[in-house]
Amino acid sequence: MSNSRPRFVPVPSPTVFATPSGLPSPRATPAVFDLNHPDVPPDEENPVLHALFLPPVKPEQVITGPPHVLYDVRYGPSKSYISFVPPTKLTPEFADSFATNPPIPVMRLLCRYIPWTIIVKNRSGVTIMDVLKAIHEQLQPPPTEGEWWSQPGERLDVITSTWKRNAKQVEGRELMDGVKRVDWLGEMTMIAGIRKPRMDDEKEKKFVLRRVPDPQIRAFTWLLEMGPAAKE
Fold it and tell me: What's the pTM?
């Protein structure tokens, strides 16, 4: 299968919480932040995530479970939904809600399937739509040559298969566009929730400390959980 891998060619590349019925929503106060030092939001401690980002009880509940954001990151965030029955389009009321309470200007998202940190910024406070846009946009560029060849052969085979599948399934993508960062996700392209790292889990703690050694920055870092998208 190694002969079928792509030739590596880089290509150009505020409201308070509004929650569905039955979801608790802590009070949020709009604010404007100084981004001179955006890496560490000042005076904001232990922000609470919007209920729509909370992970389902079990990974297989990514399509069901309590109401949460339904979003396949291969597509633009205009194709994001809330997991009502049937799924409901993510309206501006929810999209423009702050992602955390209190609002913060910077969020960092780590995901075990990708080597990149997703950084979300909004000087007036990061919103739900800011998060979705950042995830989508920051997974669209191609990997660098170093990132590509740093992967073991078996991993490259999986990424290559994903690239070919996504080129067929995702509107607007073509094989000639080459591999994108989003292809690193394999079949795990549906957001399954965002949560704080479990530092009592040794494996997870090691992962987070390696990626974010600074404890101040780590305080505003979350884990992005991904699940399998519905079969097409």
Answer: 0.80
